């Protein structure tokens, strides 16, 4: 009996964390990276100078222009890295969803609270349940109000699932059912949004069963 309504095509599904995000981020620092540091740029520049056409050598103006372009790109990259760091620092204590590429190429969603941020070679990694994930894999940040409502609805769902099947209910179950119904009625409309419609219909069936049991109890007393 599914009780929690979808959050994203279904309820938030906690999945085991992996090191795929950190591994990919480390690998991206190799030949596959789209960024270029000053040492690599100078290497390319020297190679270009050594292999230029001696009959039509590149002018000093062109060398300066290339260097200026490289400097601008480097500055943009630095700004991007700084913004990633600021974003990462602000995520500590937040509940997030990460979209991570697994070893087989499929996507896996990891959700959990960010415990701390670790920096490696200028890259920010989020620690979630003991594993590190690149901040670049961040998909969603879940607000505190959202999580509080979800947790409250989830707590009700877990207790409600413990009730006996309707066909097995007895007068002795009346106090427990009443307590569950009080908990459900105490949920706000927003919190009830996390309860699936099927579950809401089931709650109504238990309410009707409760009234029937109370009638039986009165008949027994009389």
Strand order of the largest sheet: 4-3-2-1-5
Low-confidence stretches: 1-20, 28-34
Radius of gyration using CA atoms only: 29 Å
* Number of helices, counting only DSSP H or I runs of 4 residues or more: 7
Note the overall shape: rod-shaped
Summarize the structure in words.
It is a single chain. The longest helix has 30 residues, at 60-89. This protein has a five-stranded antiparallel sheet with strand order 4-3-2-1-5. Helices cover 50% and strands 16% of the residues. The relative contact order is 0.14. Mean pLDDT is 75; it is low at 1-20 and 28-34. It has 222 residues and is α+β, with helices and mostly antiparallel strands. It is built from seven helices and five strands, in the order αααβββββαααα.
List the helices and strands and how they pair.
Layout: H1 20-27, H2 38-50, H3 60-89, E1 95-101, E2 107-120, E3 123-128, E4 131-134, E5 138-142, H4 144-160, H5 174-186, H6 189-192, H7 197-221
Antiparallel strand pairs: 1-2, 1-5, 2-3, 3-4
List keywords for this structure.
222 residues, alpha+beta, 5-stranded antiparallel sheet, disordered N terminus
Quick structural summary:
With 222 residues, the chain is an alpha+beta fold. It is 50% helix and 16% strand. The longest helix has 30 residues, at 60-89.
């Amino acid at each position: 009996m599914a009780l929690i309504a979808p959050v994203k095509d279904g309820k938030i599904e906690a999945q085991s964390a992996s090191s795929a995000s950190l591994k990919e981020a480390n690998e991206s620092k190799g030949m596959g990276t789209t960024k270029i540091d000053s040492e690599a740029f100078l290497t390319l520049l020297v190679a270009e100078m050594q292999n230029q056409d001696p009959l039509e050598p590149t002018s000093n103006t062109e060398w300066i222009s290339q260097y200026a372009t490289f400097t601008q790109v480097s500055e943009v990259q630095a700004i991007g890295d700084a913004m990633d760091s600021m974003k990462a620092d602000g995520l500590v204590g937040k509940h997030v969803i990460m979209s991570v590429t697994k070893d087989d190429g499929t996507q896996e969603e990891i959700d959990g609270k960010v415990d701390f941020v670790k920096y490696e070679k200028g890259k920010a990694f989020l620690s979630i349940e003991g594993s590190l994930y690149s901040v670049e894999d961040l998909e969603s940040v879940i607000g505190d109000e959202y999580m509080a409502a979800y947790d409250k609805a989830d707590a009700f769902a877990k207790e409600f699932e413990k009730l006996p099947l309707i066909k097995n209910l007895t007068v002795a179950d009346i106090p427990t059912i009443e307590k569950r119904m009080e908990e459900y009625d105490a949920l706000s409309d927003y919190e009830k949004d996390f309860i699936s419609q099927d579950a809401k219909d089931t709650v109504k069936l238990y309410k009707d069963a409760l009234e029937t049991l109370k009638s039986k109890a009165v008949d027994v007393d009389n």
